[in-house]
Amino acid sequence: MFLIDIFNKKLHLPTADGALPGRAAAIPTAETHYVNGHALHGPYPDGLEVAYFALGCFWGAERKFWQAGEGVWTTAVGYQGGVTPNPTYQETCTGMTGHTEVVKVVYDPAKISYAALLKLFWESHDPTQGMRQGNDVGTQYRSAIYTTTEAQAAAAEASKQAYGQALKAAGRGGITTEIAPAPPFYYAEASHQQYLAKNPGGYCGLGGTGVSCPIGTGVDA
Questions:
Q1: Catalytic positions (predicted)?
Q2: What is the pLDDT of residues 24-55, one digit of tens each?
Q3: What is the extent of the structural domain holding 92?
């Protein structure tokens, strides 16, 4: 019965009363990006924008975005969308913080469009699986887009509709991706930042649906 209860908790978001308490201070993390040396924390150079994406295990997800091109200035992984302040990785894995694993993307919209980032997001995972991504099961693996501007929110919703239609045409299920204004982002521990650059043979965990959609990927999109 205990194992069944733990499994059920990992598939359902905790209430504020039932979540782990967390802590007031941020947990230690890296200061710079392991691959390009740029700062993980702000303030960032003028003209850059911030976007947040959750698409399963953040190790593989982050690599997708730092490899997206010179328009991506820096990336970082962390926890978002839950209740517990400043959670640890171990706490998030229990399903009792409510957070999902997220990639923070700091980008130059003059060099890479938000539409291009959305396309990468939708086509790098299966957004129809709810509280899981492939073999990774739990609330921390749920799909989400957390927006920082009204323009991002409108673009994210439009892309969700477009990919939803493409997935339906391909006989797939409905999209379960959450789209919401960005809640607090808590940086993950240093060992998780740019994990697959430090551990090239490490676990990735990302799949996809094989469905593509022409939502626009250019600078002017």
A1: 57
A2: 999 999 999 999 999 999 999 999 999 999 99
A3: 2-18+26-198
Q: Could you tell me if residue 205 is inside a domain?
A: no
Tell me whether residue 9 is in a domain.
yes
Q: Is residue 110 in some structural domain?
A: yes
Query: Which residue is associated with the tokens 């490899």?
Result: 67
Q: Is the pTM value of this prediction over 0.90?
A: yes
The amino acid at residue 175 is I
Residue owning tokens 């947990």: 27
Measured CA distances, 2 to 6, 7, 14, 27 (Å) = 6, 9, 17, 30
Q: Read out DSSP for 9-20?
A: HHTSPPPTTTS-
- Clarify whether 93 is annotated catalytic: no
Peptide bond just before 184 cis, omega within 30 deg: no
Residues 155-203 have pLDDT tens digits of 999 999 999 999 999 999 999 999 999 999 999 999 999 999 999 999 9
How many CA atoms within 13 Å lie on the side-chain side of 218?
Answer: 2
